[in-house]
Specification:
By secondary structure, this protein is mainly β. 7% of the residues lie in helices and 52% in strands. The protein has two helices and 47 strands. Strands 1-3-6-9-13-16-19-22-25-28-31-34-37-40-43-45 form a 16-stranded parallel beta sheet, with no helix packed on it. A 14-stranded parallel beta sheet has the order 2-5-8-12-15-18-21-24-27-30-33-36-39-42, with no helix packed on it. Strands 4, 7, 10, 11, 14, 17, 20, 23, 26, 29 and 32 form an eleven-stranded parallel beta sheet that branches. A hairpin with a 3-residue loop joins strand 46 and strand 47.
Amino acid sequence: MNNNLHFFIAALFLSELASAAEFKTIEQSGIFEVESGEYESSQMVLIDSYGKNITVNVDTDGGGSVNITTGLSTTWALDSYGNYDSKSGGGSIIWNGGLYLNMRTAYNDFKPILANDGNSSIKLNGNLSVCAENSGANSRYSHNTFLIANEFYSKSEFNGDVDLSATTSNSAGDSIGAGVIVLRGEGVDMSLGDSSGDKIKIHGISTIANGGAESYGIYGYNYGGYNLNYVINVKGSALIEDINARSESSYSYAAGAEIHGGTLNFMGDLTIKDINAETTLALAAYNGGTINIKGDSDRTVKIESDIEVAGGGSSVNLYLSGSESYMVGGISEFEGGAATVSISEGAAWYINKNSSAASLEIDGGVLVLESGGRLEYGSKLSIGGESQLVFFSDNPGKTGNIALIGSAYVDASESAIIKVVLGDYYKDLTGECYLLLIDTTGIVESVDLDLENLSGIFVWEDGGESAVGWSLEFADGEGLYAVYNIPEPSVIAMFFSMAALLSVFLRRKHYAK
């Protein structure tokens, strides 16, 4: 035989060995075994359980994993679906093993993992990774990418690590991208991870559209006409980062997690950061939705963006504990929404804009009012243990401060301190200067402002050098001031008069923004 022909046959044989096998669609009830390895698919659905009960074991013991690369025609990977708007009769999918999906498509509603209507369910016992690219759309209609989606009376469990990323583009219309989404939330139950040891990573959710562009790590949508009683339990330790939206001609919006109705529970470590769009939020709860972040000394919570809660019954409950836990950003409450914040054991909240909280408790934690940061508070402000209130000031017009409104008051422990961090502006002061730190205008006279036990520490912003000539003074009916060059007793009254004027000036300047 010709040597060249020998080489051609050998090369063809090696090429056949190197190519990935075709993943055949499974759409009948039963137990199926799939060998570990690399697969390709051009089918619309990989697993389709429309009214069927399907179990797939990767290798005999379900301990293996498969990596599937799909073509443009694949729309769903696992599709568990019953009758639309029915509470019974749905199918189920159980996948035992690891599932790694690399998906490319150009489809209007892209749902690689979907547990849909009619008492349907998906359970994946193993690690899940979905990397999707949904591009090429040129439609004035919405062009969306949803990686894990649940609707009406469906249940899904992902017992293992979860890694989700996706890009979406539409050169003509609107687009939405979400790592996890609940569309019609009535009766929906979803869990991500089996324990805090599992890693939940939602990242690189990027949406580019000519019209409105929206990106979410986790999204519970307010679809009308349904009871929004869904529950999403993030049992694993979660990282939500690099959530981006960009519009060429309209709005862009991005959130780490946003829910309308329903309940979202973060039960392990949580980090939310790098949210990028014209409007960005770390967390948002609307229309009676509740977000619970259960931080304790064994869990670390890091949040780097704002929180918004709006609508009667809506709540965000944020617990920060331990020196590695923190939040950088503001909290906004609207129309009956309420935020409960606890800061303990060295954790910190850095406030850099107007903020409020229905309940705030500091126990050995740090509350930092950055320049221009303002906390409006109308309840008991409890400052226990060796807590700190830290106020930053670039100049007298940009002093972080706390405004106690209504019947609010401060209950501080003897070991709590106030720390004022001053900018270079104050190094050259030669005369009197007054910084309003806690504003009590509007407080009724019968309310006791318990600040007598608080000591004050003043440092320069650069290098922590101690500042001299400063002290804390309380002006009845006005609040707590940081005072430089205390005047003689004969001019004390004049000082408080000037301090009151300064308070009004700062307040007017604040509200004029």
